[in-house]
């Protein structure tokens, strides 16, 4: 449930900050788009993501997701998501889980860096995390009461081709998304594009809270591309929004973004917030304490 998810995320971040040494954030400031940045081997990132929206003729909602991202290998990052949502004048419910794996194809940095993504999803139609947009998602979907939407269970596989480049301090990332339910539903497609840059590339000689190198900004554009029965932008949801990131030294990374709907099938504004904390060398820490 969102309240429990928020409590779990905050508690985990506090425990991590009290016990372990943090690492500097490496990922560009995106909510939906993936770059080729991978979690360092044996590092664990704990992340809370919140999404607030208000559909026309519906009740405002908050979608909450807690993520546990682990660097299994230099070329392999695995992640578990737990999601829930709370809708005003309705209810607060747990909506499901996801298991994601990302595989970097080329070991060294190249002009374009491809990453393959595969994810198993087990959630229900009441999910409000909006971690991606696929198919013919409509703003009307978010006005369905939780008691009705939660009865529709969605078990599906999601695949992404991630292409990412670092050019003169900028990160440019492109994602193509395909999704297939285990039922007879058709394939659904979507996309996400992101561009970002730190405010300053070279770090200062001293550690400070508000140094320009601790901040980054970006822009995301994402939406659905229909299904195999009707590929394209017709009757899809589309969003664009700036992002702002603050990497607090020896603390969490804070990310914020207002996303604006670009057509009548989209919500007017989505308010997104994220707080993450990266723990270095997790198994080494527990091995040392055990000895």
Write the layout of secondary structure elements.
Layout (H helix, E strand, L loop, with lengths): L1 H18 L24 E10 L7 E13 L2 E12 L4 E13 L8 E12 L21 H4 L3 E15 L2 E12 L6 E11 L16 E13 L2 E2 L6 E10 L5 E9 L7 E11 L2 H9 L1
Antiparallel strand pairs: 1-2, 1-13, 2-3, 3-4, 4-5, 5-6, 6-7, 7-8, 8-9, 9-10, 9-11, 11-12, 12-13
Give an account of the 3D structure.
With 291 residues, the chain is mostly beta strands. It has a single domain, classed as Porin. Helix content is 11%, strand content 49%. The chain has a twelve-stranded antiparallel β-barrel with strand order 1-2-3-4-5-6-7-8-9-11-12-13. The chain is globular and about 55 Å long.
């Amino acid at each position: 449930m969102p309240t429990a998810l928020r409590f779990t995320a905050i508690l985990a971040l506090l425990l991590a900050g009290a016990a372990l040494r943090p690492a500097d954030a490496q990922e560009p400031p995106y909510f939906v788009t993936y770059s080729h940045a991978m979690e360092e081997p044996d590092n664990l990132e704990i992340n809370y993501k919140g999404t607030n929206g208000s559909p026309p003729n519906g009740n405002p909602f908050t979608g909450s997701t807690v993520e546990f991202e682990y660097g299994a290998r230099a070329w392999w990052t695995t992640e578990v998501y737990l999601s829930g949502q709370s809708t005003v004048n309705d209810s607060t419910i747990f909506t499901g889980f996801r298991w994601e794996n990302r595989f970097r194809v080329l070991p060294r940095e190249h002009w374009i860096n491809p990453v393959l993504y595969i994810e198993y999803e087990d959630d229900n139609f009441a999910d409000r995390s909006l971690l991606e947009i696929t198919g013919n998602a409509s703003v009307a979907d978010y006005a369905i009461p939780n008691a009705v939407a939660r009865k529709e269970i969605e078990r599906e596989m999601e695949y992404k081709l991630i292409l990412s480049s670092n050019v003169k301090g900028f990160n440019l990332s492109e994602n193509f998304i395909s999704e297939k339910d285990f039922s007879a539903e058709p394939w659904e497609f979507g996309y996400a594009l992101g561009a970002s840059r730190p405010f300053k590339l070279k770090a200062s000689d001293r550690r400070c809270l508000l140094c320009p190198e601790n901040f980054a900004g970006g822009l995301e554009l994402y939406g659905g591309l229909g299904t195999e029965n009707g590929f394209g932008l017709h009757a899809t949801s589309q969003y664009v929004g700036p992002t702002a990131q603050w990497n607090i030294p020896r603390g969490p990374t804070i990310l914020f973004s207002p996303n604006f709907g670009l057509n009548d099938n989209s919500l007017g504004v989505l308010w997104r917030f994220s707080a993450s904390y990266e723990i270095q060398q997790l198994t080494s820490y527990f091995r040392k304490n055990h000895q």
